[in-house]
Specification:
Pfam families: Peptidase_M42 (PF05343). By secondary structure, this protein is an alpha+beta fold. It has 10 helices and 17 strands.
Length: 392
């Protein structure tokens, strides 16, 4: 990972975010893109579209006839967290949780709180209630360390707090939110590189909202219908930080994601990225059906887009102390998420490689056919011999 990429990733993961409260991440991305001259705009639902300056520019790119597909990179700007509901007393805020969470050792857990006007304050959780399914927090009280802080309750959001928003320890990056700010980083870094040459790359990025509560931002974007009448192919590229599983392990490279809990992804585009990974990251990538959860690739498939997906292995998924480590309160209690720098660098490399011209989108199985035909040719003599078995 280059120093510039490292600095960008660290700065991005320091931004506060929660479902429907992505404004600080979005503003950070907009400032970065504006300074670099990369076109971008907000769709009607507040998703950040990268690679076009307006809906009209988006449509012009899709209307340009070409055999080169537009690569639509998708990552989400939110992470599980809470919204303020109402002030119960000075310094005591009732909150409602959105998305997944740890379910144990929650009372007294440190949290941060913010609104979109500036800084952050701290507090702890009390009176935590889980949802009926028992898989995540439903409501809680937050007792603030600074009771004088009192913005309008509904503007407040927050999540679990650790020693820092993000820090490095060896090859690992620990953070209050790696999912999916790692994916957002890859979209932004790929856009900066692609537009540096000042030619129009076949690139679009969708930085979406509220993925953690049901892929909401991406579904809302797809429902706009802007992609329905494209004159050229479009390939969706879902980028995620996904829970570690056997065969998808930290430090062994980015994952070519064959599917998620809901659906397999498209065979042809997946073959394209699998061949790229084999050539660019030999022995340093992984392939797996990542069925620990669903991702925005599912929404792209449901709306008829050819889809491939990449992921980096994620420790302590959704801040659950599944792997433990620093600042983990207890097993299965609140803990910082963590990723491996080399895995992130590998996913970043594959994103750039996917923009190269002349990839085998139109015939992704050509090399496979060539290999299989060569194997068949080795056995021509045996294949053409008379069958010596019994005749009927």
């Amino acid at each position: 990972m280059t120093p510039d990429d490292h600095d960008l990733l660290m700065a991005l993961m320091a931004q506060p975010t929660a479902p429907f409260r992505e404004a600080r991440v979005r503003a950070f991305a907009q400032d970065l893109l504006r300074a670099a001259g990369v076109p971008h705009f907000l769709d009607p639902l507040g998703n950040l579209v990268v690679g076009a300056a307006s809906p009209a520019g988006y449509q012009r790119l899709l209307a340009t006839r070409s055999r080169e597909p537009v690569r639509l990179f998708i990552a989400h700007m939110d992470h599980p967290g809470f919204h303020g509901v109402r002030w119960l007393a000075p310094g005591v805020l009732r909150v409602r949780w959105h998305g997944g969470s740890p379910t144990r050792h929650l009372t007294g857990a440190p949290v941060w709180l913010a609104d979109d006007t500036g800084g952050e304050v701290t507090g702890v959780l009390r009176r935590v209630r889980l949802g009926k399914h028992g898989l995540a927090i439903d409501t809680a009280e937050v007792h603030l360390d600074t009771p004088a802080w009192r913005p309008r309750a509904q503007t407040v959001y927050g999540a679990f707090r650790f020693r820092k928003p993000v820090w490095r320890s060896g090859a690992r990056l620990y953070a209050r939110a790696a999912d999916d700010l790692v994916g957002v980083f890859c979209v932004l870094a790929t856009a900066l590189e692609a537009f540096r040459a000042r030619r129009r790359p076949p690139f679009l990025g969708l930085l979406s909202r509220a993925e953690e509560v049901g892929l909401v931002g991406t579904v809302a974007h797809l429902q706009l219908g802007w992609l329905a009448n494209a004159a050229r192919p479009v390939v969706a590229v879902s980028l995620e930080a996904s829970r570690t599983l056997p065969g998808a392990e930290l430090g062994k490279g980015p994952i070519v994601r064959l599917g998620d809990r809901r659906t397999p992804f498209s065979a042809g585009p997946t073959q394209v990225v699998a061949e790229l990974a084999a050539k660019r990251l030999p022995g340093r990538h992984q392939r797996r059906l990542m069925d620990g959860g669903s991702c925005e690739g599912s929404a792209a498939v449901a709306w008829g887009l050819p889809t491939l997906a990449l992921a980096v292995p994620l420790g302590n998924y959704h801040n659950q102390g599944l792997q433990g480590g620093p600042d983990c309160r207890a097993p299965l209690g609140p803990a910082p998420e963590f990723v491996h720098r080399d895995d992130v660098a590998g996913m970043r490399l594959l994103c750039a490689a996917l923009l190269e011209p002349g990839l085998s989108w139109c015939d992704p199985w050509r090399e496979v056919r060539t290999r299989l035909a060569a194997i068949r040719a080795k056995y021509d003599a045996l294949l053409t011999q008379s069958d010596a078995g019994p005749k009927r």
